[in-house]
Amino acid sequence: MKRRLSFGALCLAAGVAAGGALPALTAHANSAQSFWSGRDSFGAYVKEENCPVTVAGEKLTLRIPDFPSNYYQELEDFLAYTANVTAEYTFYNPASYDVEMTLVFPFGRQLGYLYDIYDEEGNRVAADDTAGYLITSDGEEVERTVRHTLDRWTSDPSKDIPRLAETKRTSGNFSAETPVTVYYYRQVSTENTSKSSFIAASFKGLGDGAKTKVLLERLSGSGEGAESIGLWGDNYSEPSPFALYVIGEPLSKMPEWKVYETAACKKLTEGYVERVPEEKLPTGHTTLGELLMGKYDEKYGVGETDWFNAAFDALLEGETGLTLKKSPRELDVSERLMRWYEYRLSVPAGGRVVNSVTAPLYPAIDIDFTPTVYSYTYLLSPASTWADFGTFELNIETPYFITEGSLQFEKGEGGYTYSRQGLPEGELTFTMSTVESPVRISHAGEFAAFFFTYFWWLLVIPAALIAAAVVAIVLAVKRKRRKDREKS
Question: Residues 417, 394: contact at Cβ < 8 Å?
């Protein structure tokens, strides 16, 4: 397997070469990434509505024996990171009948510092960081299923629970069986075609957005008007074709393309767009299901229905009218998946069950402090969705120090504790470091050094001009006085 590292955008400040351009001014003199996003932790949700089961008590244990690195070069190092959270619920069923309930526990968003593995074909393979973590009921292991939904970057997974469906998603006239027709185009350039040309076409009036959707390959932005799509031209002698996907009913007519000098779409340039001849690239016919499953691979560990539904949601995310403001490449949802545990529990009439769920724990990392600060968030609000809630107990097992927190933690041997009757207000948030009082790094000195290294001329040139002006005024005054004396 090939190994590649996913850092987010890591930028390094470049020096000014002799005769070269000045670098752009940035917030930090060294321009290096200083913050990596972590992953919020959540509690358990019950899928069934009007479930009578209550939470007699919750014991939350966060084990933080080590902090994560902000990047990993070896998969083994990433999997050796062991911090985790265990939520132990004591469920009580006050009803006169047994309750069978399905629980879901969200635990996985894409990390800013998550290590990725790629196979020989360049396809991403997700690292399994859940091995050894169990779900139990009264001490007995419970069978679990890992489910997936599209990560919407929200902090309210309860809104996504209905999306954990057993069947493939539909919306209006669109489903897995909806026909998709693929047309191929290419830009034809001339000697005078702008090298930064932008292709645009208005789809206004060409179809009904309720029955037809248009998806454009290599989409890069909007063109003229609200119902237009555009992409940068290739400007090669043999431009590579791009595809137009018509989902649902056919367009009333095919769009007319225009080639502009820039993305502002104000001034036309030479060159034009033409359909690729059928004998070279025949019009393709497929279904929406085949289009959405085009990037699916079982190696991702995602069920086919979950993948389809996530890609379906990505396809229609933010859609308005006929045109879909995205590219088919965005239908690869492998790096935009929220992971969920899904499992079944039985609580007898008038009985209690102790349910324990363990999942990995990932903080955000802020290296703008010395030493580094790690931020943790555990959402307590899911517990408020239960019929009733009893006691809450929190244990943080760690050799490190809490520097800030949303609760009044009690420090003891081996970590911190907190307990109360009922749920605390708000969510559980806290920051940790290897010392009690980390110091925020000041970049003032770095900025000053950066400024005087690369922008000294902003001070020197005005100062030189002012000095020259003063000298000129002094000399002019002296000349005038000398002339006045000569006249007298």
Answer: yes
